[in-house]
Every structure is written in structure tokens, then in C-alpha cells.
What we know:
This protein is α/β, with parallel strands linked by helices. The protein is built from 14 helices and 17 strands.
Amino acid sequence: MALWFETALLETGWAERIRLTLAGGRIAAVETGVDPAPQDELHFAALPGLPNLHSHAFQRAMAGLTEARGGQGDDFWSWRELMYRFVRRIGPEHCEAIAALAYAEMLESGFTRVGEFHYLHHAPDGSRYADPAEMSGRIAAAAETAGIGLTLLPVFYAHGGFGGQAPGAAQARFVNDVDGFADLVERARAKLPRNGVIGIAPHSLRAVTPEELSALLPIAKGGPVHIHSAEQVKEVEDCVAWSGRRPVRWLLDAAPVDARWTLIHATHVDADEIADIAARGAVAGLCPITEANLGDGLFPAIDYLAANGAFGVGSDSNVRIDAAEELRLLEYGQRLSRRGRNLLASDARPATGARLFAAAVAGGGRSLGVETGLAVGRQADIVSLDRSDPAFGGRSGDALIDSWIFASRRPVDCVWRGGVKQVEGGRHRYRAAIEARYGVALKDLLA
Ligand SMILES: [Zn+2]
């Protein structure tokens, strides 16, 4: 099968009159400057799919339910209490139904792979399901239903605060010991969909002791390692009180942080931490929509990009699922605080949206353990833009991406994931069935 595009952002840059031959879910050949063959599907502009490096899929179902004032001083921690209350009710069927909808929406917005930071392992009372990896299996099944690429990151969670504090009752569903976790990861590995990747996610320095962190790393078997690093100021203060060091500093000093690692929400970092993350080649996992929604703070993106730091974006709480909006908000946060424009562009790539998109495709791929971009041999994860959106009128090259990120209202036409067209006309091919199942789950959950 071959797809023909008027224009495409290839690994080597923009090209015109492109023909991509797909075979076995991958790009088998790339021809440029050619006419379409009679059987080819014809499209407007092709971009590589964007990886979504950080998701808690189940939280999609509580989107919009935490936006009412709950008393004095709503913040991340009061939000977490509401989230924990929601967690108590979610069973395997709810989890799968919610995740399938979240993943279909990710594909519709231009994400083609998700890093699922999955910590909802056990039954509501903390007891094990008959299959300890039941919930991981539900995540894999949801990814398969929606057809999104999955990098599963089972979470290790053992403590309720720095220094090995006992977990609270609300955290019982997340908790494992190291041996139990190793068993869970192996069972989850056996459930991965095709082209699935598995890594590990020590939850945070709040939830994992230094000894546990060392013991966990071999369980990844070379796969990605993700950790929540410095999302909250209180988290930084508690870490300093515990160790004398800020959390990212602690990780860089005490753990073998390298290009396999992703530091989720490296929001609160100083100049030395920025320079060191960049030098190690670790990926900063930025979640601008959720970080804004939760009032986390602003990542120092200008300084980090100036240091050539790698980053990707994640939809995290999934309060809104929108690939372009994550990148737009990343830039807008800087504009609002620095009172300037095009602050995350570079001399080499002055188009702000295009620069952020290209960097997030590369960094997201590194973070999720896959090679991204449109080139021979890569997985056929492709997004086509919708030519009927007037926002794309007369645009070409990087201006197309800038218009997607900053201006378009219906940017995405088709999305292929592993060579299969999952989205057409901006709509997932199974949206009706996925929505119906979600509706049944929500009725039950919120009853
Ligand atoms: Zn998270």
C-alpha cells in the first residue's frame, strides 16, 4: 500500500510530492518528487505522529469534575484527594473503557504513541487481582482497541512520603514490594500489543527509597525509566528537608540518569540541574496543560532549550487531550511570564511551533523507547493535516506546523498508526463503539 502527499515533513526535512510505501506496519520506501500511482491514497500534508510521553488514562473520566472550589486553598494536594476518591471506585472494566476513549482521542489529536504511567494495579482494598497484572492487561487491551502505540510504564509505589514513610490507605491500590513488582512487570510484558514497549516508573522520590530505586533498575531490562521528579514546590522543600538536596539534584547525583530516563515534570529546577539534565541526555517530560490545570508552576523552557535539553510532551491528567495545545501552552507560558514572543524558537529553526514539534517528536521517541520520524524502516505513524481548514490556506513548510499549533481549529485529517488508518476526517474509526462503552462505565462509576 502507498500513500501520496503533496508535502511531508520527512526525517531529512520538508519535501514535495511524496510517496510512502508501507509494509508490515513500517515505512518501506520513501520517494520524493513523484506522481501518485493509480492505487495510491492522496493526501495533503504529512507529519510524523507525536509521542505522548506521560498519561494516567483513568483520570480522563474525572476531567471537569475538579474545577469547583472545595474550600480554602485548592491546590495540587487537594486535587489529589479528589483523585484518590475517584480511584477507589475504578474496576478493570471501567479502566479499560476509559483508557480506550482517552487513547482514541489522543490519536484524533495527532498523538500516535502513549507512555502510560500506570499505577492502578490492585483491587480497591489493596488485595491482588487473581492475575496481579490484570489492570496492566486492561491498559494493553485499550491500546489495542484504539490502535495507539503503547509504551507501558508500570509504576513502583511503596511509600507515602520521603524517607520511606508508610503509604496511606488511599494508596493501597498502587503499592508493591520489589519482588512483587518484578513479577508484575514480567506478566505485563507478556500482555503487550504488537510494537509495544515496556519500561518501569519508580513513582517519585516521595514513594520510593534510594535502596528500592537501585533494586528496581534491573527490572527495566534496558527499557525506559520514568519518574515524577519536581512537580510541586512542597515536594522540593520536603526533599531538601529529607536529603539536603533538591529532587532532581538528588537523582542526578545518586542515580545513573542517562538518555534512557525521563524526568516527568522537571518543573522546579535550577540552572545547575538544567545543565546536568541536558548533558546527561535525559528527557524532560513536560505536561503544560496539566501543569497549568494543577497550578504546578512554569518549567524554565527557554534556559533548558538553550542548553540543548531534550524534551517531550505528555497529556498527564488528560483533562484535555490535544497535541497542539500542549506545545502552544509551552510557548505561551513563557510569553506570559517573559513578556516576549517566539521565545522557544531557535536561530536554526525560527518557526516556533515547528521547532517545538520536531523536538517533541525526537525527545518523545527517545523517552518511549522507539525511533520516530518519517524515514525508511520507521513505524508508519503518520498524521495528515486537513486541507479544508482555512488556517492552512497558502501555507507551506514550517508555516503549516505553526498554523496547526497556533491557529487551526480542525487540523488533523487522517492518522495512521503502525500503517493502519485509525482516524479519518478527524474521527477515530471506532469512536462510536468506544464512546458507548465509556458511557456505560461512567454511568456505573458516577452512580
Ligand atoms: Zn503524572
